[in-house]
Each structure stands twice: as structure tokens, then as C-alpha cells.
Input
Amino acid sequence: MDEDLDFGDVPPAMPAATLVLFRDRMGEAPEILMVERSKGMRFAGGAIVFPGGRVDDDDHIVASLHDHDLDADCAAARVAAIRETIEESGIPIGIVGDVSDDWLEVTRAALHAQQPFSTLLAEAGISLDLQALIPFARWRPKHKEARVFDTRFYIAKAPDDLPEEVVDATENVRTFWESAAGAIQLEKEGKVKVIFPTMRNLERLAQFDNYAAAEAHSLAIPVQMISPHMEKRDDGLYLCIPTDAGYPITSERLDQAVTAFPMKAG
Output
């Protein structure tokens, strides 16, 4: 699957990556790791999202030190998704070999202190398995009014010996597991805030009974650019996405959608 896409004439965007981490449950819908953003954050403040963040220069360094057949930007994005998941939840994904709870605690503290991930990995003799992450989606708004992120979404299966998640208490105020359908229901009950991209991805994720089904779906549907656009209909303006990208719901009335960026008509 080619996840290095040509986006044509779109405004510059900051590269970012996010990870949808699955935890299968016998006879029940799989749970997904979510974090609740601090209300004061500029992007998605107060909303629940998947762990993730910006791709930085050091992520490219880490990617260059590993053998893989990925495009450099794709590899760096996977490193960022792994790094951000460790930083935000303390859960190691894509780590080759076993790591101790002490290493995770020290590494999280070091990442919060802006120490390079490349140095932390090298000092511990730890490498990454970038193939553990499967491309799921890529979202990049076309607007120019605010900070724009080019975000690659990945899915991965949680390890069997999963450590307990721990909130980072900086950008986020809560870390929790919930099924995709359960998270949607929490939003309907007004218990959480869900922005437009997260809601569309939760609806897509709610289709799967287990991680294997999600992985098969992801491998079968090529990643394409998701750039929400507005469409005028008889009952108002709708925020829309492509209809052939695997999403069961592809539009929402603008006055009902929770967006992470300003939208203008016309």
C-alpha cells in the first residue's frame, strides 16, 4: 500500500501521526485507546482523540537508523506515532523485545523534558518494528485560516502483556479504553466532546468485531487524502468527505459538527 500521496495544490501543513490502538475482547467489540485533551490546548482542546502529535526532526533520525522499505516521511510518521503513544499513555507499541516499567517511566519523563527519542532508544539498545503499524487513513484540511496538520492514522494491536495506561497530565487529562461504538454513545450523551475527524474515524472503526477485521479492511482500501469540504444542501451546509474511503458516514451538517478548525462558507 502506497501511503506517500500526491496532494496537489494544498496549503502547507505540519506533518503529524496518530495511532489507533486495539485491544480485542472475547465476545465483545474491541476497545480503543483514547485520550482526553486539556481544555486549554489550541488543537482539539477538551476533546477525546487517539494518541498522536507532530512529526519532529528526531523522528526522521530514528527512522533512518532502521531497516525498512518505507518512504522516509512515512517511516518518520510511524516513529512519531510510537513515540507519542509512549509519551501520552506509557504503552509501548512497535518495540522490539521486552521493556521494563522502569524504562517506560524514565523514557516518558525524558520525552516530556524534550530529550531526543533517538538517544533514549540508543542508550537502551532498543529498536522499533515500524511494520507493526498499519496505514489506516490520512487527513489534511485545505483551509488556510489556522494551523493545518497533515495527519497519518495508523492502527496496531495492543500486546498481550499490556501495561496499564497512564495519563501524561500535560496535554491530556485522561487516558482510557472504550469501544468505538461506546465512544460515539458517550458523545451522544454529552459526556465527551468529539471533533469531526475523530467522529468519522470512530464510525469507521465501529464496523470491526476485532483487530484482524480492521487490519484486513485497512489493507483492502487504499489510503487517500481526506480533505473535508462544504456542500450546500436544501437543509443547510454540510461538511463532507470522500464516499469511497471506507467511511460509513461521509457528511454532517456544519452547525452540528465539532471541528478543530474554523470553517467558512464559499
Observations:
- The radius of gyration is 18 Å.
